[in-house]
Structures are given as C-alpha cells and as structure tokens.
Design a protein that fits this description.
Helices cover 50% and strands 15% of the residues. It is α/β, with parallel strands linked by helices and 173 residues long. It has 2 domains: 60 residues, Orthogonal Bundle (Arc Repressor Mutant, subunit A); 88 residues, Rossmann fold (3-Layer(aba) Sandwich). The strands form 2 sheets. A 4-stranded parallel β-sheet has the order 4-3-5-6. A two-stranded antiparallel sheet has the order 1-2. Strand 1 and strand 2 form a beta hairpin. Helix 1 crosses helix 4, helix 2 crosses helix 3 and helix 4 packs across helix 5. It starts with a helix and ends with a helix. 17% of the residues are buried.
Length: 173
C-alpha cells in the first residue's frame, strides 16, 4: 500500500509536530481543503498509519502509528537512494565535462552563478589540472572556460559562443 504525496505530507507533519496539531493546520500545510484533509486523515486511520485519540469534547490528537513511521522511513530511504544515484550520475557527467574542457586546451574554469554542484566542479578542476577561478578579476582572460550554473538563466548572446557550457544541460539530457 503506497502512500500518496498528500498522505505522506500529513503523516510527516503530524510526526514532526508531536504536540497537538489541528486539521486546519494540516490543510494549510498540505495545501488542501479541510474536507479533503479530513478524508485523507480517515484513510490514514483505515490503513493503520495514524491513530486518533479524543482529548476532550472539542479536541482530538493525531498519533502516527509504528506502521506510519515505517511508511515515512521507507519513503525517506527511497528518496535517499534516488538522491545518491543522482549525485553519482552528476559526478560522472561533470567529470567528463571538465575532462573535455581540459582536452580542448583551456587552462581554467569560471563557474558563473550559484550552484549546488560547485564543489564537484572544483574537485574535478583540481583533478584534471585546471585552475578553479573564483575571482571575477580573472574573468575575460584567455584560456578561461565559462561554465554557467544550473541556476543561471543564460542570455541569448552567450549561446553558441566558444568556451561556454551550461550545467543545466546535465539535468535535461
């Protein structure tokens, strides 16, 4: 029995907020109507992933059951495995990219824009004997390759120029 994205968000929200959490709060967190949130809560109880305890006439408490915790863990583990697989893929792709830059005769690499992958690019620059240039004063010098980060939106005049590539390309190929 696989959890839907909304079910998992609700389970995780309840698990993280051990103190009393209200349906209205859960609906806001997940971005669903109160009625839909109520239906999901009932479904989670039916699956055995959530328990409900009546605190008083007006309030109830939601408790994630051991089976619910197991489902959160299972989903987190799959996410972790997928993330590691992606890191390996990007590491290999960046290695090939930087090795290709070196083969084309460039002496250094400037990474333009903020990147979550900068440490990988820097590592392979060192491995393949390229200067890792962080000083903007170095930009524009001969033999420097411009690598635009995955978060950088390129200008039209950059595309097709020599000595330029985009990390975004790794995400779509």
């Amino acid at each position: 029995m696989e959890a839907t994205e909304q079910e998992l968000k609700i389970l995780e929200s309840i698990y993280k907020n051990q103190e009393q959490v209200h349906q209205r709060d859960l609906a806001r967190i997940v971005g669903l109507s109160l009625g839909m949130t109520n239906a999901i809560l009932k479904r989670l109880v039916k699956k055995g992933w959530l328990k409900i305890r009546k605190v008083n006439n007006r309030n109830i408490q939601y408790i994630v059951s051991p089976r619910g915790v197991e489902e959160i863990s299972r989903r987190s583990y799959r996410y972790f495995k997928r993330t590691i697989k992606n890191v390996v893929y990007y590491k290999e792709a960046i290695s090939e990219l930087v090795r290709g830059i070196k083969k084309r005769g460039y002496k250094g690499v400037v990474l333009v824009g903020q990147s979550d992958l900068d440490f990988i690019v820097e590592h392979f620059c060192g491995k393949y004997g390229l200067r890792w240039i962080t000083d903007e004063a170095e930009e524009g010098k001969e033999g420097v390759f411009y690598l635009y980060s995955e978060n950088y939106l390129p200008d039209d005049d950059i595309e097709g120029r020599e000595g330029v590539d985009f990390l975004q390309r790794l995400f779509v190929e």
